[in-house]
Records
---
Amino acid sequence: MKSILNIGQSKLIFVENFILGTTYRSIDSLYKKDQGKVAFTAPSNIALVKYWGKRPVQLPENASLSFTLSECRTETSITYKRRKDKGVGFSIAFLFEGEPKLSFEPKIHTFFDRIAPYCLFLNDFEFIINSKNTFPHSSGIASSASGMSALAMCLVEIENELGGSLSAEERIEKASFLARLGSGSACRSIEGPITIWGKHQKIKGSSDEFAVPFEHEIASVFKNYQDTVLLIDKGEKQVSSTVGHNLMHGHPFAKTRFEQANANLDKLSSVLQNGDIAQFIEIVESEALTLHAMMMTSLPYFILMKPNTLEMINSIWNYRKETGVPVCFTLDAGANVHVLYPEKDKEAVLAFIEAELAEKCQNRQYICDYLGIGIKKM
Ligand code: 2P0
């Protein structure tokens, strides 16, 4: 893939756009449209090799790898219209499920501020952003990955409609680049079924600035891999991910952790191709527990797991030992447990979840998801 972001060459294509953008401003008629509407739906993703620790601006300390999901999605539309006043600041209205959501607007403004150097049209238009999630409200599932990736792709599409010059492939890359500036892990939701974000010696084309799809054929056992998300705690997290990432600065185990993650990504890359599910389980569960170990050994330290998180992990281990079904777990930055297993074991695992784990979920709620392909135009 031609990179639009590598140093030197990188700025070239964006600069070309910047110049176009500047021209737009002085000669109004150069915008191809005065108004329009775009809409995209983007999925959430679950990291198997975790991103935890970053440096400015939104650059990861190690490479991460994730499964792109299918069912947990955000649907976003943006209506854009040429501004009559070229006032100071952006003109943005944000609606969540059709209702104004003022509490979200500062977040969107911060995002627009960050991406403004790469999207010069932002000041010339007014935007009405309408967003909704397909997963339950405050389920503890982070909507930042799906939300920011859908929003980023909409903006790239608007730029294209206005006369931008990027190819389809470059637009995908740019959407990942912009999404990253909104929320790091969001850059991994643009494509699927597996993506990698962060420069890694052994991954061709990998970058700290945007995610790339896993380039190898994956073993059949991993195709349509299932992720059932057990909803344990729907409350507000005590420590946000952004704060958690920052606590990796000066963390006593940071250097070793970043090296370990890159080594795990290397191993997982082979496992995904050769189908060695025992190794898969070992890497994935170790990554999940290491992520939480980093939280517990930060200063200030914190724990996001709940008693039921540990109960469920033990139930999963017992079930795997007794039945031989290769089910394992991973954790996000929260208490919910993601249960991962091959599609052929779906019936057995769902029966196990219903019988033994559902009662430990809040209101017996869990979400059945599986590998997906990323962003879709609506
Ligand atoms: C990940 N997480 O790789 C890791 C593992 C959660 C646990 O990235 O500050 O919302 O917006 O870049 O991406 C969650 O952090 O944080 C996250 P910001 P983000 O998915």
---
Amino acid sequence: MSETIGVFEVENRVFPPPEHFVGQANADDRSMYTEAEADYEAFWARQARELITWDKDFDTTLEWDLPFAKWFVGGELNITANCLDRHVEAGNGDKIAYLWEGEPGDTKTLTYAELLTEVKKFANVLKGLGLEKGDRVAIYMPMILELPIAMLGCARIGVAHSVIFGGFSADAIVDRCDDAQAKLIITADGGYRKGSASALKPTVDAALASGAPSVENVIVANRCDLNPDMVEGRDIWWHEAMAAASDDCPAEPMDAEQLLYILYTSGTTAKPKGIMHTVGGYLTQVAFTHKYVFDIKPETDIYWCAADIGWVTGHSYIVYGPLANGVTSVMYEGTPDTPDKDRLWDIIERYKVTQLYTAPTAIRMFMKWGVQEPQKHDLSTLRVLGTVGEPINPEAWMWYHEHIGGENTPIVDTWWQTETGGNMITPLPGVTATKPGSACHPIPGVFAELVDDDGNTVTNGGGYLTITKPWPSMLRGIWGDPQRYKDTYWSRFEGRYFAGDGAKLDDDGYLWLLGRVDDVMNISGHRISTAEVESALVDHPTVAEAAVVGSNDDVTGQAIIGYVILRGGNEASVELGNEIREHVGTKLGKIARPKTVIIVPDLPKTRSGKIMRRLLRDVADGRELGDTTTLADPSVVNEIATRAAEGGDED
Ligand code: PRX
């Protein structure tokens, strides 16, 4: 792991919370840390009772049968009653839940009362199709309001949703629906991206033509008037079903451990893992972190998480956290450069956004586009800036701080994962003195330690990041595969959750996340496994063998580089390389399409036959080649280096 840890550079600048901020912050001293250190279960029990309305109080805070956790045992709640009904009942029904903006510029607002009505109606649509508590439903939608309505409609009646990012392929839909045995897919005709309507429904049709026999129905929202084919008896228009649905659907109390959703994420094998989250613990931690990490003041704030709901960030910080806390959120459909490169800043100015949550890759792109873009707009309403998804380099942090935050807005660099459900390591904006590029410290009630290869605790320097105690929003397992859950997260270091990341602790006890230490790449903050891309590459009829690495990229953090060996009889060419790239795009979705495919005569292997990925990464990064003496055939390396220097088939 030293290869990942070794690139660390010391960053000494420290930014204490601005004075104006401390005085008003939801957390402005260290008391929650002290409280949680003394008794973390009692701390979380207090949060659960303060932030959530329970139909029946829980009697045991935590049942921990390592590695299986149950939180708030015996407690009953309805997650949508917490996100909607209780705000309406408290007289806040007219408060806006979502200020939605479509990419073409059309806008809609939805109050808490309106959202509740839509959710009840949609829950009745689901019931009408025979769906019951415990069933699974796949959602494949653009960033339109029907998406949170669909998720909440499922949650209201205990149907687990499994949201599939709209950029994924038909094959990805089949795999996920098969694994979860989803009975229904909720989709839309399309959504607007980069200035035009981009169809989604045909991808669902292709998926269902090739597999996913568990799916009985498809509900289709009409966003773009694309007039998709509707299969008689299977496909149902959203608007027609909703027009006929009753808005009477009382919130049924559910067990705290009721399955809320399954979200698939990439691991080190080609098969994505269905990460499971349950209602009580998940809502407690996302509501807690949303309130304290973003310093949410529901009366006055206009909060914006600019992620896609297809990823966990959107689940926790566009849907469940913000709604539980009763704040007004902005939701945006499209891309940040449509129609112009100041779209985000324009939205912030027009809606007077107070919190912005985005990814380092986006910040690096904004840096490239130039300071003149944000300078066209008044960004002075911003109070907290968040980042998530990958390590943020100090330059990007400083740019965010200076040009978006006006040098007096706290930045919260939040480390967490699909598996952790909510923020785990992050500054608290009114408490923590931040350092550019450091996620600082675990939140109150979360305990992290670095360990070395042998599992010994590291108190200064580099190591593997582990979590030492259960936390409320932890994954409850991998859908259908408890053994894989144990093996993946709990077997590398005994009694510890191993997240897959390397990190470093500096002399002041600050944590610096350094990226994955396994074969998982991070492309623009999205997790993609090398194995998944490799299996899509060898699926192409001309490819005999493939090796995939993530090379450094100024904007996307990492870029996918695929090395392929052709089957006999095929001539290497730029056209063939491009065809192979596109094949991966079709198999997995555009986000997993390699930036470069390099056709090589052979791959560098150790004597035992293992592909030398480090060397391939070095080649891709254009670095000096390392020690090659363990190569089966050292001449291969020179050949690869030459091919790489020629640029492969990059576009
Ligand atoms: O490597 C870490 C990186 O993203 C991984 C989790 O990816 P995913 O489950 O898709 O969730 C992304 C959004 C929560 C982690 O294992 N990561 C996430 N946030 C950070 C980060 N790396 C460094 N700093 C972060 N703030």
